[in-house]
Amino acid sequence: MKFLKPLYINPLFYWMLLATAGLFFVAFFVSWLYPVAAALLGVLMLAFFIDVFMLFSTKEGIVATRSLPEMLSNGDDNSIIIRIKNDHRISVSLQIIDEIPFQYQKRDFLVKSRLVRFSEEEYRYTLRPVKRGEYRFGKLNIYVSSPVGLAMRRYVFSEHASITAYPSFIQMKKYDMMAFSHNPFEYGLKKIRRIGHTMEFEQIKEYVQGDDVRTINWKATSKKAQLMVNQYQEEKSQPVYMIIDKGRSMEMPFEGMSLLDYAINSTLALANIVIKKHDKAGMFTFSKKVEDRVPADRKAGQMQKIMDALYRIDTNFYESDFNRLYAELKQTVTHRSLLLLYTNFETMDALKRQLPYLKAIARNHLLIVVFFKNTELNRLIDKKAESVNEIYDKIIAEKFAFEKRLIVQELTRYGIQSVLTEPEKLTIDSINKYLEMKARGMI
């Protein structure tokens, strides 16, 4: 039984057996075909036993491993590597079936290949998680066939492997390099013209062409008998908080991921940029109450604290309480800070219910409201209407898109900064807005 368990019979054997049975049937009417059919049956059974012998003559004919990353990056393509070594004395055909985590609901994973004797091969595929949490892999099944192709031998490796999906650290590393690149246009980040300068004095230096003439230090110039200018440095250690609304409005899905997960990925990448810029990064979430607090800081280990807090976040499907958010900010965030509020408003009525609290927050802090374009509506708007129902759908979609633009105008009217962005561009647009605020000396 132990020998039979990994043995499988290929469909080719059954087709040939069926053809032989057909030949025996014909032999009832044409007697001279009977010896031919019997000979073919004998050849088939002999070939089958030779095939089985070749597959099972080597005790460990195939050695395979599944190589997983330390953790999965949510919303990104993560590479999974399968390495296979052929210790058989013959070339073999492979069918690789990996039992990937149930979250993907994919039961048709199959890779076909061929491996020459005593050789190794590496196979890669990618998985894109859209939820944070634990992902469990099942068995790695390798089905091996010899050149005869009548039977298969099954090998099983890497049972019960598990891995955790964290907020997108791939995006974090990617935008870390972009933010300090000398050519940010290549990646979609904007170069922001510095307006004026901050008031943190650094040194007096000789004037060179291109320096701001408004920074000329006339006293130093008269002493040195040449133009001298004051040099200022970018103000540092400014507190920056990312505030994530985890109410039910943030559970809306786009490209398989919820708005909440887009906001979480953006928060991780932006927090890394903030700390690299020598500012203090902090975050918290809210819905019915304020939770997951990480006070603004830039000490070693701050990014790990933020990542751990982001990993635990989950929506509770409540209506978000902006009044509670305002009270918490007034009590705990006593210094003027830059606040990036990740939320979503679909209509003007939804905004107006929360506008008094947003105005109150903006009186004490530099508030940026980050909310989302509905890209599904854009597809309806761009699609040519061919029926009355499609015309109606298109008009409704245009109305909702127009309301999003009205929300931006309403926020601007009360001096509140805003970012209206597509979910997939959220991280880039959030970083751009932070860099713009830095360049304009507003924090």
Describe this protein's structure.
The protein is of the alpha/beta class. The chain has 4 domains: 7-56; 62-166, Immunoglobulins (Immunoglobulin-like, Sandwich); 169-189 and 235-439, 3-Layer(aba) Sandwich (Rossmann fold), CATH 3.40.50; 200-233, no CATH class. Helix content is 37%, strand content 27%. It has 11 helices and 21 strands. It has helices spanning 11-27, 33-56, 169-179, 218-224, 259-276, 302-312, 322-332, 348-364, 375-382, 388-413, 426-439, and strands at residues 7-9, 62-67, 72-73, 78-86, 92-98, 111-115, 119-127, 133-137, 140-145, 151-157, 161-166, 200-206, 228-233, 239-245, 253-254, 257-258, 280-286, 290-297, 338-342, 366-372, 417-421. The strands form 6 sheets. The chain has a 6-stranded mixed sheet with strand order 18-17-14-19-20-21, sandwiched between helices. Strands 1-10-9-5-6 form a 5-stranded antiparallel sheet. Strands 2-4-7 form a 3-stranded antiparallel sheet, with no helix packed on it. Helix 8 links the parallel strand 19 and strand 20 (366-372).
Itemize the secondary structure elements and their pairings.
Blueprint: E1 7-9, H1 11-27, H2 33-56, E2 62-67, E3 72-73, E4 78-86, E5 92-98, E6 111-115, E7 119-127, E8 133-137, E9 140-145, E10 151-157, E11 161-166, H3 169-179, E12 200-206, H4 218-224, E13 228-233, E14 239-245, E15 253-254, E16 257-258, H5 259-276, E17 280-286, E18 290-297, H6 302-312, H7 322-332, E19 338-342, H8 348-364, E20 366-372, H9 375-382, H10 388-413, E21 417-421, H11 426-439
Parallel strand pairs: 3-11, 14-17, 14-19, 19-20, 20-21
Antiparallel strand pairs: 1-10, 2-4, 4-7, 5-6, 5-9, 8-11, 9-10, 12-13, 15-16, 17-18
